[in-house]
Amino acid sequence: MKSHGVLVFAALLMTSSLTAARAEKASPQVTSLVTLPAALGDVFEVQLSPELGYVETENGKHSLATFQFELMDGERIAILMQSDVALGGYIWRKDPEAKGIRPGWKSIGFGVSKAGKADTGYIWNYEKVKAGTYQVTLATQHTGVTARARIAFVNNNNIRFKKAEFESLLSRAIQVTPSAAPVSLAERGMAPPPVLTSKLPESGEAYVASKAIVLQPFYRSLYADGEHNAVVNFEKLGLAAMEQGHFLTAEWAFDEALKRIEAIYAKDKNAAAARSKWTKEGIKDFKGEPYERSMAYYYRGLLYLRAGDYENARAAFLTAEYQDSVAEGEEFQADFGLMNYLAGWSSRCAGDGARADELFEAARRHSPELTPPLEGDDTIVIAELGQGPVKVKRGQQSELLTFSKSINHGAAETVTIFAGDKEVPLREAASIVYQASTRGGRPVDAILKGKAVFRSGTGEAAKLVTDAVSGLVRLSTSAGVVGGVVGLGFALLSDSAKPDADIRMWDSLPDRVRLGTHSSGAGKLKVSYAGTALEAPKELGLTSRSGSCGVVWTRSHSALKIGAGVPGNEASAVASRSKKNETVQQDERFRRSLEEADTNSPVTEAVGRTVQ
Amino acid sequence: MKTAIIGISGCLIFSVLAGPSLAQNKRGHGAVDLDPTVKGPVSGIGVESHDVVTMADRMVRDMLGNEVLANRKVPPRVILDSAYFTNESLQRINKNLITDRLRVGLNRASQGRMTFIARQNAAMIEEERALKREGVTDVGTTGLTRAQFGADFRLTGNIASADSRDNRTGTMQRFTQITFELVDLESGAIVWSNGYDIARAATDDVVYR
């Protein structure tokens, strides 16, 4: 019977004690095993057909599709399946010492989906998950059939979906097609979390309507979200305003963001609440990770360059580098060569040659290709490519913050800039993903409540992560740990503890920055992009010549197209804040201050060059 | 063109250092007058308004005690503006806040013992001089001069900072050094110099470190 083929296959997979001879005789033939990268939070719809991949048993060919994902120690994952025909799901963990049906892969679990019905399955519980690479293979239970299947990868603690929730989750499936060239997850990147904007109060309608039409969505988010997301909403507004030539608005918006970044939240109640295990971290007012804070100073620095205020530009770029640094004792290790270079450029424009040389040298130490500008070069050209890094929650209780490339990171994007008939050579100046996922040049596995967990060697990093994700609550009295109560306490506490990482993010940052310099006498500038997935701005974002230097700034992904709102904003954090009188009044004051600020500015500079 | 903004770094939220009723009022507060010579309810680790007032006052007193500047028979002509006052620190700042206060304070306190030149308004002065000489306007009440005043001394200075952060405790520390010098515009000699130092530290909440 055809249906026995799958059962035989499953039995073979689960039994690792077969002799090699028996394994060879009974071994299913796996052909065209193309692996699709998957990550927690992904939901896919995929077609299974013998042409795209199959495993052949004595009964024939069972169509299949395989997904690969990475897990950290202690993470829990639920894999949900739904298909139009009966499927089996097989889970493997990469193990170089594993023998049997799939050498190098150890069988972990198995689940079954009946035709048309949804099924869920835990793979295993938190005590048994080891960090590593895993695969799940979906295979049709019958041979010679095609199937359409949906599969969801969910990081959850005690998942018990109701039917409507399950259907809602799977309805978000993204169509994928196994291709001949499998792409790793690191290369593919991830989609940013969804955007949630608070409801705009009635008083906000008139405020938003008074603003430039293209910027209204950003003002809407700014007004609606209040102080909670003010920093990132100001940053997104500032960047969109820069693109559109509303430079006074951009300056105001970034100054407001920086004012809050520089604020010391020494006695802030929401910050205190975010430290608590009972409240999600997302309740705190957003300031951003170090790389985001750096980039706010970077954009403000570009605006100072545009205005010819070279000293404040230098101060901004130096602070950008400082924000990204890690201090060990009194020393900090900076690794943001771009900011050193721009500070050097600002010094050169200000006539401070000695300081410029010092800063260019510092930039070159971090990024050897960032050589100082040539003698006659008086214009700096900055081109931003791709969409910036994505924040991802990981860990048993989603308490770890990690970073990934964006699915729009635009590896294939290129930019060419000509001044007259001469190409301006551009050098890679910064990778924002690198800045996000390192501290002082050291790669970071995850961030736990602001503390970096470093990758420091086999076992140690895993232990660090395990300790972080073990979820054990240490109950203590003045006499010390109360033994024996911990187990019971944990069971009670784990249901109400909310340690979710805060993954609100500035999603209109670039993936990488390239820069070059040239002499303004060389001729008219022309910029060309290739391989851009999203629509590039039609005009150069910023061209200016004030004082001794010129600045040209352009980007491949328009902040307007990426859109307003804060990805990763969570309804529960918004709801928690709305219950606190102090926060409600804080937001009212914030909105009044917005209404009082005079930020409307006409386009102050014609942006006259067309991006091809 | 300089932006008219002070980069006040590290503003304490809900500080109780001054005006506690202002800081803790949950419903907000209408504008109140503050004493600029003392720390306000919002403060940080960089240069603040009370620093500007204090340092300007200190420099004025010191300059008035300088023999070369204050006790000459013919009052020296001094340019006090921000043109050669540089900012090398990490703090974005409007330098005019410092130099304007210095100039106004010294002008008032010197009571004629020094003459101050508005070199930053040279273009404005030339415009008016041209109108008088072309007969577009009359010559005013002080008569004509051969040329605008040349200056004897000019202010130079620098703002520099050293920043550090302890990643264990999250404490941020900044040392800001502000130096002032008056330079003889003929010989290049530095006839007067003084400095003002600020060292501050603050610790942000752990969720922001």
Structure explained in plain terms:
The complex is a heterodimer of chains A (612) and B (209). Chain A is of the alpha+beta class. Chain A has 19 helices and 29 strands. In chain A, strands 1, 2, 4, 5, 7, 8 and 10 form a 7-stranded mixed sheet that branches. In chain A, strand 22 and strand 23 form a beta hairpin. In chain A, 50% of the residues are buried. With 209 residues, chain B is an alpha/beta fold. Chain B is 25% helix and 24% strand. Chain B has helices at 20-24, 49-64, 67-70, 96-110, 122-134; strands at 77-79, 85-87, 115-116, 153-166, 171-184, 190-203. In chain B, strands 1, 2, 3, 4, 5 and 6 form a 6-stranded mixed sheet that branches. In chain B, a hairpin with a 4-residue loop joins strand 4 and strand 5 (171-184). Chain B starts with 19 loop residues before the first helix and ends in a 6-residue tail after the last strand.
Question: Quick gist of this model?
Answer:
The complex is a heterodimer of chains A (612) and B (209). Chain A is an alpha+beta fold.
Q: What is the strand content of chain B? A: 15-25%
Question: Which parts of chain B are unreliable, with pLDDT below 50 for 5 consecutive residues or more?
Answer: 1-21, 23-27
Unreliable segments of 5+ consecutive residues of chain A: 1-26, 121-127, 327-332, 455-497, 600-612
Average pLDDT confidence of chain A is: 75
Q: Over all CA atoms, what is the radius of gyration of chain A?
A: 27 Å
Termini separation of chain B:
35 Å
The largest contact between protein chains, plus residue counts on each side, is: A-B, 51 and 39 residues
Shape of chain A: globular
What's the overall geometry of chain B? Answer: elongated
